[in-house]
Amino acid sequence: MAKKDYYEVLGLQKGASEDEIKKAFRKFAIKYHPDKNKGDKESEEKFKEINEAYQILSDPQKKSNYDQYGTADFNGAGPGAGQGAGDFDFSDLGDIFGSFFGGGFSQQGGGRRRNGPERGNDMEYTITLSFEEAVFGVEKEISITRSENCEKCSGTGAKAGTSPKTCDKCHGTGEIRVQRNTPLGSFVTQATCDKCGGKGKIITDPCTSCHGTGTVRKNRKITVKIPAGVDTGNVIPLRGHGEHGKNNGPSGDLYINLRVGPSKIFKREGFDIYIDTHLSFAKAALGIEIKVPTVDGDVKYTIPTGTQPGTRFRLKGKGVPRVNGSGRGDQYVRVIVDVPKTLNDKQKDALKLFMEASGETTEEEKKSFYDKLKHGFK
């Protein structure tokens, strides 16, 4: 079998630095970790391969030997000196992943001890805000149900006055090592201890409140401070407000997803606000002072003489506050000139006078039309 190029396995050039090796290993380890690819044999083999490469390239002596001689030691034993050529010990992954992820992965395929500190699960909650609440910020009280450590047994799962006993089969690790001999070598794997169920301890007298689990479900009210300027899709992380960890592990986080309802008046794009204002033909032609609604209240604005339909004016600083920043967006006002669909006699006479003053008459338009029609017949 051809020797593997460990640099190529990690997507690196020969002579890569220690920091580059760590970053590459972290990226591929997350991608191919068995916890994320359960039942995928190809990912499992790839995971073994990148772990093998990392064990060599992260060790200065082994890396030096590999760079110079193409092997990790002078005896040609290759990766994992001290094991057979086909040996692979899944337990080696625990130390590696502990240094990278703080024991965040389960022991399936390597990671933390099963009975070690375990971080609590993250939680999500969605809050719907009105348009105005999103613009100016607001405080919301929410109610969540989460797993918490049982107060009666302090999270041990054992009845008050008693304590769990260390499993005598796995000696508290929650796992047992199984060695298999194959034509390709000896494989050492780890399996869940069948006596304690992977907990590393046995509870003979369980707590009456949590029934031995060490956790209980509780409702909690939490006040969420939502800053001004948020929008749909924004997420507010509340660190440590998720479910409690096990075996003194840290709590998970609570992520607040925000949804913002529409406004009946305004349209928002980023931190800018848009609005339409309707004017009659006369007001647009003569100019007029109008009241424009903004999120801060009505403001006066002078429409200049001869304003054309579709003209857009800017109200600086009347938009949405920038989240955790300085300043605000702007508000844009688009002018829509309304043309009346019906006219009374007085309005018609007034418009005729206007047309005459402008050098236009309806009779000339009619005459011109008939002249063109006659010319067409000729």
How would you explain this protein's 3D organization?
- By secondary structure, this protein is of the alpha+beta class.
- The protein is 26% helix and 27% strand.
- Strands 11-12-16-15 form a 4-stranded mixed beta sheet. Strands 1-6-5 form a 3-stranded mixed beta sheet, with no helix packed on it.
- A hairpin with a 2-residue loop joins strand 5 and strand 6 (185-192).
- Helix 2 (18-32) packs antiparallel against helix 3.
- It is elongated and about 110 Å long.
Question: Secondary structure elements and their pairing?
Answer:
Layout: H1 6-9, H2 18-32, H3 41-57, H4 60-69, E1 88-89, H5 92-101, E2 123-129, H6 131-136, E3 138-149, E4 165-166, E5 175-182, E6 185-192, E7 201-202, E8 215-226, E9 235-238, E10 254-260, E11 267-269, E12 272-280, H7 281-286, E13 288-294, E14 297-303, E15 312-315, E16 331-338, H8 345-357, H9 362-377
Parallel strand pairs: 1-6, 2-10, 12-16
Antiparallel strand pairs: 3-8, 4-7, 5-6, 9-10, 11-12, 13-14, 15-16
Helix pairs in contact: 2-3
